[in-house]
Amino acid sequence: MKKKILFCCYGIGVGGIERCMINLLNAIDYTRYDIDLLPMNPEYGMLPNLKAKVNLLNPADYVMDTENTVGEMRKRKARIADYARYLLFRIRNKWRWKPWKMFHAPDNTYDIAIAYAHTGYVPYYVIDQINARKKYMWHHEGRYVIEKRYMLDKQYYPRFDSIIAVSNGDRDILLEVFPELSNKIKVLYNIVDWREIKTKAQERVLFSKKTDVQQLVTVGRLTHQKGPDILLKTAQMLAQDGIPFQWFWIGDGDMAASSKEKCHEYGLEDKVIFEGNQANPYPYIKLCDIYIQPSYYEAYCTTTIEAKVLQKPIVVTDVCGMREQFKHGETALIVGVKPEEIYAAIKQLITQDGLKEYLMDNLKKQTNPMECLLSKYYQLFDE
Prior knowledge:
With 383 residues, the chain is an alpha/beta fold. 38% of the residues lie in helices and 17% in strands. 39% of the residues are buried.
């Protein structure tokens, strides 16, 4: 008999975590498992990439904290009792009285319930509301900010059967905070679909690319984590040094407006181009001369793996997970989280004869680990 699994996630918007989840869902053997997918927010930018036979649940049937909750209730001609329940949710949310306990849950009993996020209400909802024989949580961040939700996490994390860190570095960070959970915190690398990346990289894109300049690309949300301020300061140094370049940022986020303002302040409008969210970022990576990830922190960065699959010269900051992906000077240049060091690495790649080719040749020797990784997922699911 097939096992029944629930994946509960924050949403299915455009982002690295969402892409990793979809890669996993697309790769799973559905002769072994039936899967429900519950996004807790109606974000569906990555949904066209989901090819698997997954039963997608409507968040409006279960949760009450989305932007369109009231509109959805009016559309459904909700009863007075439903509005009263929503009002009680808002009160509990304001006073932080575990408001997720007001959410409904699917009627099913699951073999496994997976909180595929450690953010928002996802892990707490899965623990308190979902009926499942085993419960797992994925941790993707590469840091733990103890000031935020430590007391709540200390209460809830031990109730999971396993906590999945996406890199050894991420596991070490969790163990520093929760040493008592050493027997529960496991490492599973994210699934990356090499064939899909190479196929989609062949698609044509229209963007303002110039000739005879270095094409630099960064993919990621425009948030503090991904380092847009570092990128702009690095770009300013390259411009002051007279190096001809264009730097494309693929992604959007809460720092989009401020980053564009700073770009204008630095006089970099023709050199740093913000392309916004792209469901398929791979053609941009394929066409670049150097891929750069100026992050302040990561757990196990997806976009750098994708650049590695496409065999590009890569510069990354020395944050969690990067030394598990790359060997400095062999498959990438790993530098400190400083504009000066990223600038120096870019200049080295541009000026040092043969360095780009050396890194790319080493990346060509990689093998696809998907089947080996999938077997580890099945081992977890079949425990």
